[in-house]
Design a protein that fits this description.
Nucleotidyltransferase, domain 5; nine-stranded mixed beta sheet; 21 helices
Length: about 625
């Protein structure tokens, strides 16, 4: 079937992290999460602003599209929810009374709601436009994940592994991709879910489900795996092929409004930790234990994927694929020669996946692997730099309107100037080019610092990010120097692989430190000559940077190396705790002024905190003056 045009819009919405993506001729033109534009963390509403941006970036209207795709099948999901409530009746009746009407509205009538919302994209001036009548197609949730992993990958053929909380019925899947074909060959089904197991421990240790899982992963190295045997004995019946059964006695997500049950509390010796209270060794040990179990399941699933497909490469997506510690083990110990992970591995990436499925499967269009300037295959995600960007004129107009003192620096001189500032111990907000798609800042919307400074991790966490001091930061390293600093000799452009710091650069703990310090007390002991990006287990979550993908960020790190001999900078997302990563110059300036960031770079413009004067904020006036429509 030939499409009527070469442009497709993909949509992810109504659960968490809504997003939109536009393809032209199968190539990703634009992709963005709605939260970045509305400034509502995890915004689940229909992505009006994201879709509008994507259409503008592609230079088309809603009526120019070949088709619109939605990332899952709402009727199948509703079937699973209804069967679940009926299966646990009458225990789940109270929960169903609360959730049932919402699910009926949002899932049973999704097609009508989507068409009404799409109509507004084409006729925003009308209060009651006619529903959009174009071709609207649906893919299963894990098919969307699998497509987002394989089709943009640098492989002609690969195994595909997806793992998350739950889609319609599937919670994990194994597939095979060849050329323009993708087939799911094996699935694990609800209620047995690796994502929900991890989320249950996230909930029990006092963190927020669907966002606190990163914290559990970061907390794990501070603990001991003392609960692993207990988890295997009572909670997880794990089989050799990576499939498993969860003992629902210990969970409450089937019938109740919490993740864990009273039996879970009894097993682990008390109720869940109250959020924001002090962490204890128990939480650290639980985090370590669930991480160990998760990694073992990931390894067994990967071995099964190898056995089922015979492929040399593996592609991954789904929320569990953001577990970069597990990914690092898969790369080092797993059966595959190469691994590629979709940078927007969570539900936002489903928008990209369904669009790819429509182009290749529905319209039967060919797929061609992208080749870099060096002649080698590379992925088609363009470094994940797929969001909005702002011209120098737009940035300067904003700065003048705000009255913010600034200095304009010639492009060729900016990297060295910023490198000098970093080498003097300052923290810099770096806003440059198109915003990243996915949860990681990759050098377009980043806060950066000197990794050699032993106080930088704690200072950035507490003074800038307003978050827990134990949270690790990532190193951005020149691709050609990664093997000199880390036990990794390959690409990690999306900060989704963890590897050890080179042993020669490590600083071993003394016997006295090992005996006297435990848990988070170990945080302030330098572990290497880049202590601010070295976690307490001597690991680091690595981003490799190339000149081809991000020339400005590469030039900055290169300049820092020329000054210091260190080809590494700290990179953390440009936001504070509880807020989305900044999108606009206004967002960046607001974050700069609310925190103890020392300098802000907006394109070619450099701002010093000392020159800005006292910060007073009138949120309503600011929104009226600057916020995007």
């Amino acid at each position: 079937m030939s499409p009527k045009s070469n442009v497709i819009l993909g949509i992810s919405a109504y659960y968490h992290d809504s997003a939109a993506c536009v393809l032209r001729d199968g190539e990703v033109v634009a992709a963005v999460s709605e939260e970045r534009l509305t400034r509502k963390k995890g915004d689940a509403a229909f992505p009006h602003r994201a879709a509008s941006y994507c259409l503008r970036q592609a230079g088309v209207t809603i009526n120019d599209l070949a088709a619109v795709g939605f990332y899952d099948k709402p009727l199948l999901k509703f079937e699973r929810i209804l069967e679940t409530y009926l299966g646990v009746a009458p225990r789940g009746f109270k929960s169903f009374l609360k959730a049932g009407p919402l699910w009926v509205k949002e899932k049973l009538y999704t097609d009508r709601e989507l068409r009404d919302a799409l109509a507004l994209l084409g006729d925003a001036g009308s209060k009651d436009p006619a529903p959009w009548d174009g071709e609207l197609l649906y893919a299963e949730h894990h098919e969307s994940h699998a497509a987002s992993a394989f089709f943009p990958s640098p492989f002609e053929e690969s195994a595909v592994l997806t793992m998350d909380g739950v889609g319609e019925w599937a919670t994990a899947s194994i597939g095979i991709g060849r050329g323009a074909d993708l087939e799911i060959i094996k699935e694990l089904h609800w209620p047995d879910s690796l994502g929900l197991l991890y989320s249950a421990i996230t909930y029990y240790t006092g963190f927020k489900v669907n966002s606190g899982e990163y914290k559990v992963m970061g907390l794990a190295p501070y603990g001991e795996p003392k609960y692993v045997d207990l988890i295997y004995k009572h909670i997880v019946d794990l089989r050799e092929d990576g499939s498993f059964t969860l003992n629902q006695k210990y969970f409450n997500y089937l019938a109740g409004l919490t993740m864990t049950s009273e039996a879970f509390n009894e097993l682990f010796g008390g109720p869940p930790r109250v959020p924001e209270t002090d962490l204890t060794q128990k939480e650290m040990d639980l985090a370590r234990s669930v991480q160990v179990v998760t990694e073992e399941i990931m390894l067994r699933m990967a071995r099964t994927a190898k056995k089922e497909t015979g492929a040399k490469a593996l592609c991954m997506a789904g929320g569990v694929a953001l577990n970069c510690v597990g990914n690092g083990r898969l790369l080092r110990e797993g059966p595959f020669e190469q691994i590629w992970i979709q940078p927007a591995a969570g539900d936002a990436g489903g928008a990209l996946g369904v669009a790819q499925l429509i182009w290749h499967r529905h319209f039967k269009q060919p797929r061609k692997v992208v080749v870099g300037k060096d002649g080698k295959p590379r992925d088609a995600m363009k470094g994940a730099y797929l969001g909005p960007e702002y011209t120098d004129q737009e940035i300067e107009q904003f700065l003048k309107k705000t009255g913010a003192p600034f200095e304009k620096i010639e492009k060729g001189k900016l990297p060295l100037r910023v490198a000098e500032i970093l080498s003097q111990g300052a923290i810099v907000g770096w806003f440059n080019g198109r915003m990243e798609f996915g949860p990681r800042a990759l050098g377009s919307r980043s806060i950066i610092g000197d990794p050699r400074n032993p106080r930088m991790q704690a200072d950035m966490n507490i003074k800038i990010k307003f978050r827990e001091g134990f949270r690790p930061f990532a190193p951005s390293v020149l691709r050609e120097r990664v093997a000199d600093w880390f036990e990794l000799d390959g690409d990690s452009p999306y900060m989704l692989l963890v590897a050890p710091v080179k042993e020669a650069r490590q600083i071993p703990m003394t016997r006295e430190q090992n005996e006297k310090l435990w848990g988070i007390a170990k945080l302030n002991v330098p572990r290497s000559d880049i202590p601010a990006v070295t976690h307490i287990d001597y690991s680091a979550r690595i981003q490799t940077v190339t000149e081809e993908t991000n020339p400005d960020y590469y030039a900055l790190i290169k300049a820092f190396e020329s000054l210091t001999g260190c080809p590494v900078v700290i990179n953390t997302s440009f936001n504070v705790r509880g807020e989305p990563i900044v999108c606009t110059p206004e967002d960046a300036y607001r974050c700069f002024m609310r925190t103890q960031i020392d300098y802000l770079v907006l394109g070619p413009y450099l701002l010093s905190k000392t020159g800005q004067g006292e910060w007073t904020e009138n949120a309503a006036a600011w929104q009226k003056e600057f916020q995007l429509d």
